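Objective 1.3, modelling of assemblies. Example input:
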Amino acid sequence: MDKLLIRGGVPLSGEVRISGAKNAALPIMCAALLSAAPLRLANVPHLRDVTTLLNLLGGMGVAVSLDEKLGLELDAGRLHTPLAPYDLVKTMRASILVLWPLLARCGEARVSLPGGCAIGQRPVDLHIKGLQAMGADVRVEHGYIIARAKRLKGARIFTDLVTVTGTENLMMAACLAEGTSVIENAAREPEVVDLANCLKAMGANIEGAGSDTITIEGVSTLAGAAHRIMPDRIETGTFLVAAAATGGSVRLRDTNARILDAVVDKLREAGATITADDDSIALEMDGPPLSVNLRTSPYPAFPTDMQAQFMALDCIARGTAVLTETIFENRFMHALELQRLGADIEISGNTAVVKGVAQLDGATVMATDLRASASLVIAGLVARGETVVERIYHLDRGYECIEEKLSQLGAGIKRIR
Ligand code: EPZ
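Predicted structure (tokens):
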């Protein structure tokens, strides 16, 4: 298994390009299943999760091609097997996003129940409840969700919790359902809006994406389209936090500050100077950060996917911070690894109290999930001496060429195969 060897203490400086958003690319690639005409996508990030999904779609009969500009074309014209097998779904939970499009397009779908996940149980009961509300016959047998529907019927659906992929799944199903659907308590994440924009380009009739109520008028078929994936706001936030933690000065290109207001606010509270224009965002940090408290909540509040990175920042900040994780029940595993580097963290339930220390000391640590890995990389960048981060296949799921980008910013980092 690959590892990352990091020599800490170098303030990041310079500029890098932010890749397309993983959490927009995954649902949008699944949207290709809704049409018999090709969907052409630009700015798709080259990530393990994207490759996994391409294998899954390919297995169903979707023709996948890359053009010379690394644009992706997905042609579901000859879709033949509405099945998402366990061995692929178990490596990527977002595979659940094929369920609705398959059902809406083929009238049936068999998708393996995504197993548990390091950060929490992450059930898909709300996905299934929404589908039943639209008239589908849904059963769970031998670990598979088996869904059938001649044609889905539009319905008013209220999800008890705000669910990002639940909202995305229901929005995709409603595009081809008969009649009007209204999704209440919908997720407002920018990736949901990006998916809605792609679906509208394909001919869907969607109002209200980005608000908590989305109205969809079903149509009989969707056409092909061309769409550019939005920038990855979590990759953007991760690099901003790394620059702040190392007391550096960076500019991030092909991204913008409008999609991560809550993160920018917290970084300013920590003492960073942040400026932004239409397609870039810059951060300067003089001296160690101030401790910042945070509480994760659905967008537009502070994103759970940035909690681990901020915990690394708070480890070397001046003061004491309280971090509360309200979305997932087990998203503090990075704390145990940060303590190996000398961090002072007390966990009780879904709250972590982080007392800033003057210095972290390099050690060997183990990544447990995607964003925890990013947290450990940031800690390694500020720790004295060498840090080795193991099991970085977690990192490769969600960050494109992270060690190349960090090296471009002056970091002492290399991958050990
Ligand atoms: C999406 O996951 C993201 N993944 C996650 O990013 C992100 O952390 C999460 O949203 C929250 O923002 C993708 O978009 C591919 P949820 P998702 O459904 O949709 C509970 C990353 O690091 N819930 O919004 O799976 C669930 O257990 C990943 O890039 C149910 O109880 O998350 C959680 O507590 C990690 N029943 C809460 O809702 C359901 O049917 C929010 O989950 C669905 C969800």
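The mean pLDDT is 95.
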